[in-house]
User: Fold this.
Amino acid sequence: MSDEEFPKRALETLWAPWRVEYFEQEPRDRDFLSAAARASDDAAHFVITRRKTAFLMMNRYPYAVGHLMAVPYRKTAEVSSLGENEILELWELVVHGQKLLRAVAKAQGFNIGLNIGQCAGAGVVDHLHLHIVPRWSGDTNFMPMISGTRTISEGLRGLYEKLIATQAELEKLSRRTST
Assistant:
């Protein structure tokens, strides 16, 4: 088979209909973390749970399916400016996020970390947040290397609903075992 006969068009087509969620959105809001912190409609901002000084939300621009973020309400770019309660709640939210992702997405591992400063890859430079990125054995593939394309296999809204339902179930179980 010559190069001209090879069906390039079929191979160059990547169907990802869930991506319409991104195309229908307004241009990226650089202040989306602060907006989520202030919001009363958690579902509209993909906020999963709130604590006194921090909250857990889905990343609207995920590296992988289920990419979550633990975010302090207080806008700061410096870890050193966080109080002890904020640090504790952020890490408690990381643990909670891992528990949810193990149950919902069957995550086998995690990348957890901060990107502080633009040169370190921070997409939101002035409002730090902890990334919780689920991983699976064999989840890396050729797509990012060859075509510069990352594939995300589930839409944000559907996954959000699963995470909220699982969180409610875990809370029910916790109440039963604590009484």
Summary: Residues 31-178 form a domain with the HIT family, subunit A fold (CATH 3.30.428.10). The chain has one domain: 31-178.
